[in-house]
Amino acid sequence: MDSSTEMPRRPSLFPGLNASKWPWWAIVIALLGLVMVSLIISDGQYRATFLYLKDGVLTTLRITLFAFLFATSLGLLTGLARVSKNPVLFNIATFYVETIRGIPLVVLLLYIAFALMPLLVDALNAMGIVSSLRDVPMEARAIIALAIGYGAYEGEVFRAGIQSIGKGQMEAAKSLGMNYFQAMRFVILPQAIRRVLPPLGNDFISLLKDSSLATVLAVDELTQLGRIRRASTFRVLETFNLMAFLYLAMTLVLSGAVGWLERRMKIVE
Taking a C-beta distance cutoff of 8 angstroms, is the pair 153, 203 a contact? Predict the structure, then answer.
C-alpha cells in the first residue's frame, strides 16, 4: 500500500464539537459534585453530616475574609515600607517579613494565641486602657495570627508590584508637581495593584485552605467540626468525603470569582 495514501476519516456525528478541546477536568469535577449532592439527598448519614458541617463552612469563610482583609492592609503597609528610603521603616518591615516567613504558620497560631494574646490582655488591663477585657475569643486569635502570617507574604507581593513599575513613572509624577505620597497614591499603586491581583487571588485561596489550621485552637470551623463528627459517630468516609467536597467547592467558587475580577480589570499577563 502506498504510504502516501491516507485512509478516509470517518465523519463525526457532531462535526461542530471537538471532544479533545473539552474541559474534561471540569466535567469530572462536576460529575463528582453531582454524586456528592445525590448522596446528601438520598443517604441519611451524608445528609446528617452535611447539616452538622454547614455551620463550619460559614465560620471558615468568615475567618478567611477577615484575615485576608487584615493581611492585605498589613501587606500594603509592609510593601510600602520595604521600598521606602527611610532606614527605620525599611528595617522594621524587613525584620517582620523575614521573621514571620521563617516560622511555620501553625507555630505562629499557637504562639500568638497562647503566648502573645494573654500578655497583651494583661498589659492593657494593667495600663487601664481597657478595664472589661478579660479574654479574646479563639476565632479572633486565629484571624489575627493568620493575618500576621499572610501579611508578610502580601508585603513581598506588593513590594514586587511596586518595584515592577518603571522609575520613569515616579519621575513623571514629580515633574507634574506631585510629592512622593501623591505619586504613590495616584500613579504607582493603581498600576501595581493591577499587576499583583493574580498573586493576591492565589493567596486568598491558599488562606481559605490554611484556615483549617484554626482547628488547633478548637475553633468550630469546617475541619474542627469534621473531627468532632468523625470522633462522635465513627463515620469516617462520609465525614472526610464531605469535608473535601466542601473545601473544593469553596475553592472553585473563589477561583472563579478571582478570574472574573482579573478579566473585569483587564489584567494582562
Answer: yes
Q: From the CB of residue 77, how many other CB atoms can be counted at a distance below 10 Å? A: 17
3-state helix, strand, coil split of the chain in percent (to 5) is 80, 0, 20
Distance between CA atoms of residues 53 and 229, nearest Å: 8
* Band of residue 119 on the pLDDT scale cut at 50, 70, 90: confident
Cβ neighbours of 247 (radius 10 Å) = 19
* CA distance to 158, 168, 172, 188, per residue, from 175 (Å): 25, 10, 5, 14
Identity at 160, one-letter amino acid code = A
192 CB-contact burial (10 Å; exposed 0-12 / middle 13-18 / buried 19+): buried
pLDDT digits (tens, 9 = 90+) for 172-199: 888 888 888 888 888 888 888 888 988 9
Top CATH class, 62-219:
mainly alpha
Question: Residue type for 52, please?
Answer: Y
